[in-house]
Structures are given as C-alpha cells and as structure tokens.
Amino acid sequence: CERTGRRVPVDCLSQCAVTRLKVLSHLLEKSSTGRNVLRDRIVVCEVSGRRVGDDEVERSAVSGTVAVRSMFKRCWKTGALLLPEESAVSDLSGVVVRKDLLAASDKPPHRLGLPGEFATCDATGRRLLRDELDLSAVSACRVDRDLLRPSAKSGRRALAEEMVICAESGVELLPDESARCELTDRRVDKTLVRPSDVSGTVVLSSLLVVCPITQMHVLAHEMERCAVTGTIAVASALESCSATGVRALRSEMIRCNGSGVWVLRSESGTSDYSGKRVDRRLLVRSEIAPDRQGLSEEVGTCEVTGRVGLLDELARSDVSGRLVDRGLLRRSAASEAVALPGELITCAESGAELLPT
After folding, report:
1. Nearest alpha carbon to residue 88 among 76, 105, 79
2. 120: which strand partners?
3. SS3 sequence, 51-66?
4. Whole-angstrom Cα distance, residue 271 to residue 254?
5. Rounded CA gap, 285 and 299, in Å?
6. Can you give the pTM of this predicted structure?
7. Measured distance CA(337)–CA(348) in Å, rounded
8. CB 292 within 8 A of CB 283
9. How far is the C-alpha of 335 from the C-alpha of 189, rounded, in Å?
C-alpha cells in the first residue's frame, strides 16, 4: 500500500483517482461522481453539498466559494472563474462576465452591457447600449432608435423635427427627398416637381402645361397666342412679323430671302425674276409688264422710255450698249445681234435691216 506501506494481497488494493496511488481499498471513498478517492482528498462542494475529489473543484474568484468545476463560468473580460450567481451575460455581445462589470441601459427594460458597449443619445443625453441607438439620416446624430421615424419614400430614418411633410400627400419625407415649388412656395415630394423647359423654374408638375408645337413643359405665363391660328404655344415657337408686328407661329410665316426677317405669309411675295419668297415691301413692280415684280437688284430702267422693268425684260443694244426694253430692239438680218431701230441700216439692194458694221 502506497499510503501505509503495508504489504497486502494485490486484490486488497485500489487506485486513488486523484493521486493515482495504489492503496488499501478501505482507505478510499466513492465520490458523488463515482470515482474512488482517498478520504483526505475528498472535498464538499459548497453549492451542491456533493462530495468529490479535490481535482474536480475550483474556487470562485469573487466569493472564494469552492464548487464543482462544471458549475463555474469563465469571465470573458478577466478570465476569472465565476459561479452562476456571480456572473451575467451582456445583452449586446452575449459574453459572460462578472456581474459587477456590467451596467444597465437608461432605457427600459434596462438591458445590461459592458462599459465599452454604451454610447450617449445625442437627443436625450441618456446612456444606452449601442444596438439601442442609430444614426439620423439627416444630421448623422446618434440617437435612441425609438426616436427615429421612417421616410414614407425610402424608409430612411430621422428625428421627427428633421422630417418634412409633403404639402401634397401629407407624408413624412427626408429633406433631400423633397423640393420647394417656386410658384406656391410649398415643400413637396421632389418627384412631384419638375423645372419649366423655358425658364428652369421648379414647380409642381400639375402647374405645367404642354406646348402643342414643341411638346415643352412650361408655365402658363410662358405661353403666347398665335394671332393667325389662335393656337397657344411657347413664346419661342412664335416670331414677330417685321411688317405688321403681329406675333404668329413660324409655320404661318416665312423668312424673307432678301433681308432675313420674318413676315406673315400674307405680307410676303415672290420675285418673278428669281423666285425668291420675300417681304412684299421689297418688291418693285415692272412698268413694262405690270403683272410682274422683283427685288430692287433685279430691275433696271429703260434708257429710251424711262420705264422700270425686270432684268429679263431688258436687254442691251449691240450697237450702242444702251439698256432698253426688249420690245424696242430689232434683230439684224445678218446675225443674232440686236439694236434699236434708229441704230440699224437698211440695205439698198435687199431692204434688210443690218448693223452698221
């Protein structure tokens, strides 16, 4: 026997589960866990009263209580062994620590957490666990989650005083989800407004009208009535007649090929010489063919009669070079040349009219 030193039959010996010594069987005690342990190595668990080997127990770092090892928990923060009643769990991280290391949130139900798991609400000043706080999407302030309200548009959250009420729908929005109508000065959901295509003024879409000519979205006062058709269109689709001052759609006007100005169709005319469509005030009527007219640079004066005619109604004498009414010129019998009657010579033999040359 390794305890008494006595020599005994082998079958009278048993091994101590704690010391591993082979001793007389009557020196051993069966522990609550079913192990054979020397009586002086048996201890009593101060929590359960169970008799176990001294290698199966630990001492509490808080109270000094001796208990079975399986009853202890290890503090995540300090590494110390704790009995259940001496420990608690952080409601934020879920770690087990000494009870006295935990603090309670100022917000019911006063959940527990470690000091580093708290922050201060910027709105109320209360000390709350971090998962009880959230950031305002407007100010980025860290506040109690229950103080934040969701935007009806995006679900993003902000404090009530940071929200905007849409004047059209009445729903709560974040400031960056709203816009101000420059006509009514009302703040609304920004999807309900758009700028005028003429002035850029941001207004409610319902206050804009569509121009039937350009399809532009504009304010009513940015429209104008065509004096010819009565059509109301955006002002940029109309022009002022240079002759009358009347405002009309471009489709009811022509741009003068002579001066480049806009005139009503009724105030325009066509040159019989060039075919140009122009302001009729620029046309000169022929005195040779009164039913014809042309631009000033398209007419000339007959040097014989003094009458004005279009350039295609005049021609030059091949004898004198004078510009005259074509009807006054005679053709030489000997060539294609033309001249005034007084400039031709009559052949004494044939009686034909010829140029002097």
Report:
1. 76
2. 127
3. EEEHHHEEECCCCCCE
4. 14
5. 9
6. 0.61
7. 20
8. no
9. 89
> 45 with 52: CB under 8 angstroms?
yes
Rounded to an integer, the average pLDDT of 86-115 is: 96
Rounded CA separation 221/214 (Å): 16
pLDDT tens readout for residues 158-167? 999 999 999 9
User: Rounded mean pLDDT of 254-265?
Assistant: 94
Candidates 340, 278, 287; CA nearest to 310 is 287
- Residue whose C-alpha is closest to residue 182's, from 200, 165, 197: 200
Q: Which of 250, 230, 232 is nearest to 240 (CA)?
A: 250
For residue 325, count other CB atoms closer than 10 A to its CB: 21
pLDDT for the residue numbered 286:
97
Name the residue with tokens 């199966």: 56
Cα distance between residue 304 and residue 344, in whole Å: 16
Question: Cα separations (Å) of 319 from 73, 188, 279, 302, 322?
Answer: 135, 87, 38, 16, 8
Give 114-153 pLDDT, tens digit per residue. 999 999 999 999 999 999 999 999 999 999 999 999 999 9
Q: List 346's β-bridge partners, or say none.
A: 353
In terms of Cα–Cα distance, which of 338, 342, 334 is closest to 326? 338
C-alpha–C-alpha distance, residues 59 and 332, integer Å: 147
Rounded Cα distance, 176 and 139, in Å: 12
* Size of the chain in residues: 357
